[in-house]
Amino acid sequence: MASIRPIRPPSDSPLALEARAMDNLRYIRKTMEGASSFTAVPGWGGMLIGITALVAAFIASQQPTPALWLGVWIVEAAVSCLIGAVAMLQKARKADTPLFSQPGRRFTLSLAPPLVAGALLTFFLFRSGSFAVLPGLWLLLYGAGVVTGGAFSVRVVPAMGVAFMVLGAAALFSPAAWGDIFMAIGFGGLHLIFGAIISWRYGG
Amino acid sequence: MGKTNAWVRDRRAEEVGFGSENRTVRGEKVSRASRLDRLIHERIRLGIVSALAVNTALSHNELKQLLKTTDGNLSVHARKLEDANYIECIKSFDGRLPRTIYRLTPAGRQALENYLNHMEALIRATRES
Predict the structure, then answer these.
(1) What is the CATH number of the domain that holds B94?
(2) Taking the CA of residue B63 as centre, how many other CA atoms within 13 Å lie in the half-sphere pointing to its CB?
C-alpha cells in the first residue's frame, strides 16, 4: 500500500515565515481600520457647533439685509470649522496614537471638497441675488461631505450626513422665509443630536 | 490523519519560526528582545488588542461584531488578556442589561508594539537573506 504523503512538504522555510508574518500584519491593519473609524469624529465638538449654530440662526433671522444675514452665517461657518478642528485634534491626542491620524485625515479630506464647492457657489449665487437657495445648498453639500467622509466610519456618521441631505432637499423645495428654521434644525439640531450620540457611544 | 499532519506541521512551523529565544533565519539572528508574545499571537486576542489600540474604549458588543465572533469566545480571550493586565474590563449595568467596556492598558499597548516589531524583524530578516 502506498504511503500517504502530504502535498506540501512540512515547511519551516523563511519564506513561509515571512508569509505568516505578513498575514499577521495585514490582519492587524484590517482590524484597526475597521475599528478606528469609531473615533475620528468628535461628539462634544459637534454639540458645541450645534449650539453656536442655534445662536447664529437666531441672530441671522434678525438681520435687516441679505448681506448682513450672509455675514452672520459666514462668521458661524468659520467658528464651526475652528471648533471642529480643535475638537478633532484633541480627540486624536486623547487616543494617543499616530495610527489614529488615518481615519481623521480621511474624514477631513472627504469633507473639504463639498465645502469648497459650497463656498464658491455661495459667492456666485449671492451675487446673482438668489440667496433663497443658500440654506438648502449648504445643508445638502455639508450632508454630502459627511456621507462620503463617514463612509468608512460608524453608521451614525453617514446617517447624520443623509439626514442633512434630506433636510437640504426639503429646504430647497420650501418657501425662502423658512431658511433660518431649516438652518437651525440642521446645523443646530442635527449636530446636537448626533454629537450626543457619538460622544455617548464612542467616547468624546 | 491528514488533519493531524497539518496540525503537527503548523505546530512545528510555529515552534521553529516563532518559538524559542534565539533562533536563526538563514543565519540571520532574530534578536531575543523581539521574542514572540504568544498571548497576543492568537487571532481573536490580536484582534482585541489591535481594535482597542485605536479606540479609547470599546464595548463587548462592538468588539464581538468587529471580530465576528461569539460572546463566549470573546469573553474567554478577553479574560486572558485581562489576567495579563493587557486590557482592563469595566462592567456596569445599562438598565438591567450588563454592559462591559474594554480598554487597552499601557502594558497592552507596549505588547502590541513589540509584536509589530517582531513581525517586522522577521520579514526584514527573510528579505535580507
Answers:
(1) 1.10.10.10
(2) 32
